[in-house]
Amino acid sequence: MGEHIGSIIELTVDKIAHGGIAVGRLDGRVVFVSDAIPGETVRARVSDDRKKSFWRADAVEVLQPSEHRRDHVWSAAAIDRDPRGRAGGAEFGHIALAHQRELKRQVLAESLQRMAGIESDVVVEPLPGDPAVNGLGWRTRIRLHVDDQGRLGPMASRSHSVIPVQDVPLATAAVQAATPFAERFLGLGTLDVIAPTTSDPRLVIGEQKPTVIRELVGEREFQLDDTGFWQVHRSAPVALTRAVQEAIDPALFDPRAENLDLYGGVGLLAAAVADRFGAETRITSVESDERATDHASENLAEWLGASAETGRVDRWLRELDAGASAADRDRLRAATIVLDPPRSGAGSEVMTVLGRLAPAQLVYVACDPVALARDVALAAEAGYRLARIRAFDLFPHTHHVEAVATLIRG
Ligand SMILES: C[S@@+](CC[C@H](N)C(=O)[O-])C[C@H]1O[C@@H](n2cnc3c(N)ncnc32)[C@H](O)[C@@H]1O
């Protein structure tokens, strides 16, 4: 093993796998090929032959292009570059935008089918305005790294080397204009460029101390740290607010129940729930980052029944489960629980406790289709069924997709 690395193979790829990599076969062996589109015949350079069952390779030449192939939206990531020198973060940039959504749909539908036994007719919806600008200019935040000459760039898509760039076309015009491409940052690890909705763009250099910024979602303002989590697409906070509001079955919603917003960040989705169901709404937002919880407390201050607590969701739920009185359990059974976990998903411990608490409905916001499908399958073991699912292209030109699923008992 190792003797095939660097060799050029020719193959046709026929499907897309989780992670946005195309899959083909060579002499019966599965090969995961980056920068290829299902249906294409490509020449690819083998990058990993350590496993018996599959190899990895990077497309270097397209022999029979897909009708969906386009010039890459980012020259720094294009196929004419050596694979090790291609910028990461836009791995679908060579695919027509509508077809990117179709490939994301396939991955989501296939994950639900394979892991949870669910046939779904989910579609991936573009965010308003994106198709008209070919899915560019959406990132309100970028993280760039510094190379050994102090230049700025993303990591290469398949290595840990920094690829110096002169543009970041997925970023908003404000972020692009504020990015100091010509400057040198020798010795500094990272540079974040952030364009908040209420103030000028700002740079966060290395491990700089956090500064409080404000973001507008519709008419509502949220405070947060410039180093903290916020949805990246300029339209994502509004889109997810509406999607979560619509995902809640009002017939199952009880404003006086023990409603929860798990993995709550600075309270965006707790506010979405309280905004929809009014001043009486009780909801607790749970988040592990203490500073984010402090901001959430401020952001939720107008609702008397809304609060924010710092805690790891698994531990917090375990303690809730262990200490709940009969009356608490009734309020939890009547609850709507929104959860928006990181990429790894909620996982079995959290889903098991949720199953025991048996809330009326779960609204699961997911940024990873496989983690979602696994957790939907775990919820099914606890008696929940997938009542509704929508998916959104919150990350055009990447393989990422966001889904909002409603799970109800019975
Ligand atoms: C995908 S973000 C969602 C934040 C929020 N719902 C929003 O839309 O702005 C996930 C959040 O979960 C937090 N988090 C990650 N792991 C956690 C854990 N085990 N327990 C609690 N919070 C966690 C992160 O700090 C982050 O704020």
Notable traits:
single chain, 410 residues, alpha/beta, OB fold (Dihydrolipoamide Acetyltransferase, E2P), Rossmann fold, 3 domains, 8-stranded mixed β-sheet, 5-stranded mixed beta barrel, 19 strands, binds S-adenosylmethionine
Give the topology, please.
Blueprint: E1 8-17, E2 21-26, E3 29-34, E4 41-48, E5 54-64, H1 97-116, E6 124-126, E7 141-146, E8 152-153, H2 173-178, E9 190-194, E10 202-205, E11 212-217, E12 220-225, H3 236-247, E13 259-262, H4 268-277, E14 283-287, H5 290-299, E15 306-310, H6 313-323, H7 326-333, E16 336-339, H8 347-357, E17 361-366, H9 369-381, E18 384-393, E19 402-409
Parallel strand pairs: 3-5, 6-18, 13-14, 13-16, 14-15, 16-17
Antiparallel strand pairs: 1-2, 1-4, 2-3, 4-5, 7-8, 7-9, 9-10, 11-12, 17-19, 18-19
Helix pairs in contact: 1-9, 3-4, 6-8, 8-9
This protein binds S-adenosylmethionine (SAM).
Describe the structure.
GO terms for molecular function: methyltransferase activity. With 410 residues, the protein is an alpha/beta fold. The chain has three domains: 62 residues, Beta Barrel (OB fold (Dihydrolipoamide Acetyltransferase, E2P)); 222 residues, 3-Layer(aba) Sandwich (Rossmann fold); 70 residues, no CATH class. The protein is built from nine helices and 19 strands. It has an eight-stranded mixed sheet with strand order 6-18-19-17-16-13-14-15, sandwiched between helices. The protein is globular and about 65 Å long. The model has no long low-confidence stretch (mean pLDDT 97). Bound molecules: S-adenosylmethionine (SAM). The site of S-adenosylmethionine (SAM) has 15 residues, from helix 4.
